[in-house]
Amino acid sequence: MRFFSTATALAATAATLFYASGSAAINTIEISGRYFVDSVTGEPFFIKGVDYQPGGSSSFESGADPLSDADVCARDIYLLQNLGVNTVRIYSVDPTLNHDECMTLLASAGIYLILDVNTPIYGQYLDRWQPWTTYTEAYLDHIFQVAEAFSGYNNTLAFFAGNEVINDNTSAEASPNYVKAVVRDLKAYITNNIKRQIPVGYSAADVLEFRVPLAAYFECGPAGEAVDFYGVNSYQWCGDQTFKSAEYDVLVEDYTNYTIPLFLSEFGCNNVLPRTFQEVGAIFSNEFSVVFSGGLVYEYTQESSNYGLVNISSSDGSAQERHDYVALSTAYASVTTTGLATGSATARPTTCATSYAYINGNTTLPDTPAATLIADGLNSTYNRGKYVEITVKSTNYTIYAYNGDEVTDKSVTENYSIDISDASAIDQTDKSNSSASTGDSPSSSSGSDTSSGGATATGSASSATSSSAAIANLVRSSEKMGATAVFAVILGLVFA
Ligand SMILES: *[C@@H]1O[C@H](CO)[C@@H](O)[C@H](O)[C@H]1NC(C)=O
Ligand SMILES: *[C@@H]1O[C@H](CO)[C@@H](O)[C@H](O)[C@H]1NC(C)=O
Ligand SMILES: *[C@@H]1O[C@H](CO)[C@@H](O)[C@H](O)[C@H]1NC(C)=O
Ligand SMILES: *[C@@H]1O[C@H](CO)[C@@H](O)[C@H](O)[C@H]1NC(C)=O
Ligand SMILES: *[C@@H]1O[C@H](CO)[C@@H](O)[C@H](O)[C@H]1NC(C)=O
Ligand SMILES: *[C@@H]1O[C@H](CO)[C@@H](O)[C@H](O)[C@H]1NC(C)=O
Ligand SMILES: *[C@@H]1O[C@H](CO)[C@@H](O)[C@H](O)[C@H]1NC(C)=O
Ligand SMILES: *[C@@H]1O[C@H](CO)[C@@H](O)[C@H](O)[C@H]1NC(C)=O
Ligand SMILES: *[C@@H]1O[C@H](CO)[C@@H](O)[C@H](O)[C@H]1NC(C)=O
Questions:
Q1: How high is the pLDDT of residue 443?
Q2: Which of 38, 159, 446, 455 has an alpha carbon within 20 to 30 A of 261's alpha carbon?
Q3: Ligand nearest to C-alpha 107
Q4: Which of 101, 148, 219, 266 is catalytic?
């Protein structure tokens, strides 16, 4: 049975209007061709963001997540807002927790969420080397719960069905059609059970051989099986570089014919410290914006991997801006996300190639183990989110500026008004009691795409970017890999 709190019903009927100081609504974002657009104004939406997972991208235990404690959120959203971001990416959440206060505060600050549906907990991710062992009904139940839990918030921008699952030769052989099956299942679940068709994508490790073939493999085929957008984790601009020396020109060229939205799901090489985020100017240039819709800097908190913008004290929860926070806020303040160049859209390739270089391009996907869940909805007690009245807009935690001064006014500025009586995003129908499914089941999801076929983005892999950038990328990927695997991949790179 689906979980509904009585407050949902009350909010829907009682016309409790709550307007914050801002005036604009937080409109949903949808996809139009190869860009994200504001669903009301039609303006293209460029992601100016930060990866936000205190503890690191692979750090997570159920019972708490980055959006479950209002006082922590008020601390971090204050800092994120002053950094100038419009989007955060979160890598893991617990769908049984309540995220309403944090999501409402994020929305009022004008910040969207890109959410990975997996966690590092066994049974809640796909094993990259033996995906058939973890592609189970219980696994899909988990990711569907995450989608349900966050579906009621306008500022849920998109879901990542996987992050860097394919990052070595073993996973490139074993996993592509399983990741695509997860994409298919999540999209079918959303179509059948969730009011808004929230986009589903994949976030790729930027391993050079895989760059072009993997992106093409995920883009092609029946609409029900292709990703809606694609993220690239790229650490190739390190320190003082140019568009050319960092090979951003190659990056743009490699994806120039891509037909769906694309962005840097992680950037911010730390080989040269302190970081100056010179690449921000390049990312928000017309040359880049035609192909890429912005990006997300890795990462908000300082962890052992040394990418932090902010120090969080483990003893008292106080936060202090680091040098990189100041540098990034300066860089983000110097660019605009409006008026950037966009290009015309071409049709998505509805047929896949028969094979792809370096990866197993099998386009026959495994059958879903969760056909009943996809058709009928979940029978789990996840916490279905909705906007609520904000009670904590100023954190109790101490915040220090970079110069050591304590911040006195820690209030989040409510630039957007969140009308909590607007339940338009919330599906009020309890499908667990409906007798028959009206939607497609994934086995029939190989239906035709309405767009006519275009050319598959093929194009050969570019020459290698600097091996230091590649290794930086691998070190980042290593958070999610065993030490032996990392070593093997580094050896592979160095001795290739
Ligand atoms: C949600 O977005 C829709 C447009 O997609 C908009 O009409 C509505 O007002 C928004 N709701 C809130 C609470 O901002
Ligand atoms: C913050 O401090 C106020 C005043 O001391 C207290 O009433 C409130 O419960 C605290 N809030 C949180 C979330 O700890
Ligand atoms: C995959 O194997 C080839 C051939 O052994 C090697 O050149 C390449 O570096 C490997 N790629 C990765 C990502 O390990
Ligand atoms: C952040 O924490 C590190 C390690 O504790 C410390 O060396 C550094 O000075 C701190 N930086 C700031 C700006 O607080
Ligand atoms: C393609 O994948 C499907 C589903 O996992 C599998 O049944 C089939 O044997 C694979 N085909 C090839 C040629 O490996
Ligand atoms: C749904 O869950 C309830 C409580 O756990 C259980 O009694 C019921 O049999 C489940 N229904 C289905 C269709 O699985
Ligand atoms: C939102 O609030 C911040 C912090 O006060 C402010 O600097 C910024 O200009 C506001 N943004 C918009 C879009 O109104
Ligand atoms: C489902 O239907 C049964 C029988 O009509 C009803 O007793 C139950 O309350 C319904 N459950 C929900 C969640 O609406
Ligand atoms: C992009 O498309 C153009 C025109 O069809 C083609 O000449 C070019 O090679 C393609 N580039 C890539 C990287 O596929």
A1: 29
A2: 446
A3: 1
A4: 266
Averaged over 467-494, what is the pLDDT? 36
Q: What sign results for the dihedral spanned by CA atoms 128, 295, 259, 445?
A: positive
pTM: 0.84
> Does residue 225 carry a catalytic annotation?
no
User: In the annotation, is 164 catalytic?
Assistant: yes
CA distance 171 to 226: 19
* Amino acid 490: pLDDT: 35
Residue 380's pLDDT is 85
- The pLDDT of 153-177, averaged and rounded, is 98
Confidence of residue 44 (pLDDT cuts 50, 70, 90): very high
Note the maximum CA span of the chain: 67
25 lines ligand 1 (CB under 6 A): yes
Closest atom of ligand 5 relative to the 178 alpha carbon? 5
Q: Is 379 in the pocket of ligand 6 (CB under 6 A)?
A: yes
**Beta-strand pair 87-90/112-116:** parallel
Distance CA 180, CA 159 (A): 14
Q: How confident is the model at residue 471 (pLDDT cuts 50, 70, 90)?
A: very low
21 pLDDT above the threshold of 90: no
382 secondary structure, DSSP code: -
Q: State the average pLDDT for the chain.
A: 85
The answer to whether the CB of 264 falls within 8 A of the CB of 294 is yes
Q: Which ligand is nearest to the CA of 379?
A: 6
Q: How far does residue 92's CA lie from ligand 5's centre (Å)?
A: 30
Give the pLDDT band (50/70/90) at residue 422. confident
* 406 CA distance to ligand 9 middle (Å): 54
Q: Closest ligand 5 atom, CA of 132?
A: 5
Nearest ligand atom owner, CA of 432: 8
Q: Cα of 459 to ligand 9 centre, how many Å?
A: 7
Residue nearest to atom 12 of ligand 6 (CA): 379
Could you give the domains of the chain?
Answer: 2-22+461-495 (no CATH), 29-376 (3.20.20.80)
Q: Are 322 and 309 in contact (CB under 8 A)?
A: yes
Catalytic residue, from 148, 164, 247, 414: name it: 164
Residue 383: CA atoms inside 13 Å, Cβ hemisphere, count?
16
Q: Show the ligand 5 pocket: residues with CB < 6 angstroms.
A: 177, 362, 364, 366
